[in-house]
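DOMAIN: structural biology
WANTED: fold as tokens
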Amino acid sequence: QVQLVESGGGLVQAGGSRRVSCAASGRTFSPSRMGWYRQAPGKEREFVAAIWWSGGSTSSADSVKGRFTISRDNAKNTVYLQMNNLTPEDTAVYYCNGTIGALPYWGQGTQVTVSS
């Protein structure tokens, strides 16, 4: 069983930066893809960014392009989301997602709150 544990959430002022992390533990970790999603109050969960584990190629939502960067550390089985120039609209619970053996895994989420 794979477990994904997010960390790094918190309160940040508008225009500031924050990095959230997702550490994987459990059986041999060999995902095809890792991603970040977010869910704001009263809204559906939405895609933020993804990275393909072997090649390192990435994709991101238009709303965060140029501000958010996803990266990985294969040795640490960890994926990061660097968030810059945050706005109150980025306030949400940020969830880590992994596709491992065609199965989806989710973390418990970490709250990011951006104050104006």
